[in-house]
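Re: the 295-residue chain
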Amino acid sequence: MEQLKRMALFATVVDKGSMVAAADELGMTPSAVSQQIRKLEEATQVNLLHRTTRKLTLTEAGASFYQSCAQILALAEQAEQRLAELRDAPVGELRIAAPVGFSGRMVTEALVPLLRAHPGLSLRLFFHDEQIDLVERRIDLAIRAGVLEDSSLVARHLGDWRMLLCVAPSYLARCGPVQGPEHLSALDWLTLNHERAQQLVLQGPDGSVQRLRVESRVACNNILSVRQFTLAGMGVSVQPEPEVREELARGELLVLLPDWQAEPLGIHIVTPRRDAQPAKVRYAIEALRRSLLTR
C-alpha cells in the first residue's frame, strides 16, 4: 500500500513539474515529497529523476514508470468518482427481493418513476415467498411481510396491512350465511403454508378475541395461488386488503364477518446494514415507503 502511495506521489511530481508544486498540491513539505521519491527509487533500485537546481527531468526508466503510475492515479480518481456517484445519485444495479404477492402492480408503481428519473439505474427483482440470504444473493433491500425472525439484518417497519377473510360469491352461495366466528371452523380453508391445522386469531368489534382451529383443504406456498383458488370458489382464505382491493370492488371476492379483524400483516423493508447506504437504496426505500403506505 505504501508503494502505491509513492507511485501516486511520483505521478503528481511529474505532472506538477517540481517537488515544491507537488508538495503544495498534496499538503506536504517539499522535503517529505523528496524523501518519498527517494524511498521509491530505493525500492525499485532505479533512478527515476534527474535532479538539478533548476528543474526535474525524467530518466528513461522514469518516463516508462510514469505512464504506469499515471494510469494507477487515474484509476484511483475514477474509483473515487464512482463511489461519489453511488453515494450521491441512484446509479448502478439495484437488487430487490420481495414476496410473490408483490409481483403485481405494487412494486412496479413504486419503482417506475424512480427508473424514469434516473437513467443510470438498473433493477433486478427476485420474488420468493421463502426468505433468501440477502448477503449471499447480493440483495440491496428486501420487502418482508409478517413477523420477522431475529437476525443481524436491519429492519424498518413501514406499517400494517389489514387482513380480510375472503370468499367468492359462488362459495358463499354453497355454504350459506356465516353469522359469526363459531361457523368458520366448518368451512373449507385455503392457506399459505403446508400445515394442515392452523390457528386463526380474530378480534371482534367489542375488543373480544376468538382463537379458532381451522384445517386446510388446499395449502400453497404462494399467495397468488391461494387467491386463485379463492376466486374459483374453493373456500375461504385470509388476504391482504391492498392486494385484493380490485377484486373486492368488482364483486369477485366478498369479505366474511367484516366486523371481525384478523391479525394485521406487518410490512418491513430489510437491508443488510444501516450505515453508508448508497443513494440507490435510499431512494428505493423512500419510493417503496410512499407507495406501500398509501395502500
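The chain has a mean pLDDT of 86.
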